[in-house]
Amino acid sequence: MDKPAAYTISLVIPAWNEAAYLPRLLESIAIARASFVGGQDATEIIVADNGSSDDTAAIARSHGCQVVPVVDRCIAAARNGGAAAAKGDIVAFADADFRLDPQTFNFINSVMHAPSYVGGATGLTMERWSPGIRLTWNLIMPPLWLLGLDGGVWFCRRADFQVLGGFNETVRAGEDVRFLTSLNRLGRGRQPRLRLANRFTSRKLGVPSAMAINSARKFDRHGDWHMFRDAVRNLPALLLHGKKHIDQYVDGYWYQGR
Predict the structure, then answer these.
(1) Residues 202-224, mean pLDDT to the nearest whole number
(2) Domains of the chain
């Protein structure tokens, strides 16, 4: 029996002033595209330029990417803006400071051809480890795995992305967890019931894993223990001001670099 044709995949990269990190991501993508069983032409790379003032857009174009300008300074809006231009059967999302595994597109293709999955994530690992990074990781990732979620390159059918309305643009952080939670709920409502793929799915399907490599730039910039320090420093203000303080922290941490 002939194997089904490979899916076409659109990879969306939200980017704001990512000239320092984007080239290495795009180099890793080139290797993954060349390794894809569907052929390089079965993938398209979209950089959603979220108002960059550096060479992000020029770098993307020089690597053959489609550049989609997104004015609203919000990562959820950037993801949605890039996805709106996507033409592939599958839409996937990678952060600009990732490096992709060479098997990324093959992993996505294998998962989406399996009958049990609505979408999912490749999983990810850090580019370096330390006691502080390891403890932070252990507090964040295992609870996500228990919920059936994972990090890395997220993906689903473009039709399902549209059904869900994309990422929630009313939030400025955590939009990825919200979207995967909604996607998981959508899959559970299908007959037969579908679930999310994660880093452990490669073993179940007998295919190579494809975990993305995440940069440690936040830890490099703020210190390997900074999340614990920030928790202690921000707890009083959080108790006094609630959501207002959370919004201020998110804006400083994710959008201004403090």
Answers:
(1) 96
(2) 9-218 (3.90.550.10), 225-258 (no CATH)
